[in-house]
Write a structure and sequence with these properties.
The protein is α/β, with parallel strands linked by helices. The protein has a 5-stranded parallel beta sheet with strand order 2-1-3-4-5, sandwiched between helices. The protein has a 4-stranded parallel beta sheet with strand order 7-6-8-9, sandwiched between helices. A 3-stranded antiparallel beta sheet has the order 10-14-15. The chain is built from 14 helices and 15 strands.
Length: 405
């Protein structure tokens, strides 16, 4: 017995030594930064909901099973380009962030896109509107995921003109998003035989639209185009109601409206508003299932299209990283995302074009009347599905340097 013990001990020591030198299964570490508005005019569109959406994407992707170890961090860019650029630079340089998503606010998104290109990382914008992200300022490191000013103009702008709204006056948020949205909607109005009779630039953000609405009212335009978003849109629509603008025969065109905006307004105030979105929580069984999961973590609130975009783009990004088994080259990761067709429960099948524009269908909605709504979040009725290849700008028309010939 004494003779066998050292042998057993030696065998155990040998096996332990083998266990120590066999490497664990290799994992690719991935760090995703959700950089949005957590405290300002767009916080309901972005905010904590974007972080929740990213985490739900991880739950569904199960990265550990695919050799990935994923961490999510978040920050508030306060709708300031210098703040957004500084956070992006710190994340890339010091905190080893590989991809930034959300981005809501066009001026901030353009700044983040520039830093991302310098650092050869990945930026997938969901919340900013400016179509310049896939036009003159396109980047091999940036993808524009949810909507843009061209799609909104073609959707809502085109629909309003076809309904007889052939004269327009714009209330335009005085920064790159509002200016781009007015520009792109004006092109659609002109193309369809309409006319812009005036416009006014409004400070961003602003709580008092009274003087601007009075200018729009006195213009006699059939349509008052709201080239703004978030709290600004909510305030403008509320105050238009107080002035009796729609009762006087003028129509409001909310050129970028989210379900959270309509929920805040209520169907009594927002009824009849026509808008364009690529996602609505009650579209089908898959959107309802995701939205129920989201609502459980967000005190009952349903996801906006921006939140849905974060979920969708995180899934597609992780698919590309899993294929490449690396995050080292951001441009290569974006190229892989462009090469792979997109497919997820919220947006269905689509593609990412050479200019970085993600293509999917959009929907023309009308806000229900109070009598038609069956619950707190029962807000929209679908008027039309607009195919992605019709609603977004044609590839060759954006002046993106990445598009050849």
């Amino acid at each position: 017995m004494n003779g066998r013990f050292p042998l057993a001990a030696l065998a155990g020591a040998f096996l332990a030594g083998v266990a120590m030198i066999v490497p664990a299964a290799a994992q690719t570490t991935v760090k995703i930064g959700v950089l949005g508005d957590r405290s300002g005019a767009y916080s309901d569109i972005s905010g904590e909901g974007s972080v929740v959406a990213a985490k739900l994407a991880l739950e569904d992707f199960k990265p550990e099973e695919k050799g990935l170890k994923v961490e999510i961090v978040s920050a508030d860019h306060q709708n300031k380009p210098d703040v957004g650029a500084a956070i992006a630079r710190q994340w890339y340089d010091r905190d080893k962030v590989d991809m930034i998503t959300d981005g809501v606010t066009s001026s901030v998104a353009l700044a983040i896109s520039q830093v991302t290109k310098e650092k050869n990382k990945v930026f997938i914008d969901t919340g900013a509107g400016t179509a310049d992200l896939t036009g003159p300022q396109c980047s091999p490191n940036t993808i524009h995921w949810v909507y843009d000013t061209v799609a909104l103009a073609n959707g809502t702008g085109g629909a309003m003109v076809k309904r007889g709204g052939n004269t327009w006056f714009f209330l335009t948020a005085d920064y790159v998003f509002g200016q781009t949205l007015q520009r792109d909607t004006t092109k659609v109005i002109d193309k369809n035989g309409g006319k812009v009779v005036g416009s006014v630039k409004t400070p961003f953000p602003t709580a008092d639209f009274s003087s601007f609405l009075l200018q729009a009212q006195s213009s006699g335009a059939k349509v008052i185009g709201l080239a703004n978003a978030g709290a600004d849109t909510i305030n403008a629509i509320k105050q238009a109601g107080e002035f009796g603008i729609t009762e006087g025969g003028q129509s409001l065109a909310g050129l970028l409206v989210f379900s959270s905006d309509v929920h805040s307004l209520g169907t009594k105030v927002a009824q009849g508003l026509v808008l364009t979105e690529p996602f609505y929580w009650d579209l089908n069984d898959q959107t309802r299932a995701f939205s129920d999961r989201f609502a459980k973590q967000m005190k009952g609130s349903k996801p906006t299209s921006n939140h849905a975009g974060v979920y969708s783009d995180v899934l597609h990004y992780l698919k590309a990283v899993a294929e490449l088994k690396s995050t080292a080259d951001g441009a290569a990761t974006v190229a892989k995302m462009k090469a792979m067709p997109t497919d997820d429960p919220l947006f269905g099948k689509g593609v990412v074009r050479a200019d970085g524009r993600k293509i999917h269908d959009m929907y023309l909605f009308e806000v229900k009347k109070p009598a038609e709504s069956k619950g707190e979040w029962d807000l929209y009725k679908k008027l039309e599905t607009i195919p992605g290849d019709q609603v977004f700008r044609p590839l060759g028309e954006g002046n993106c340097p990445l598009v050849k010939g």
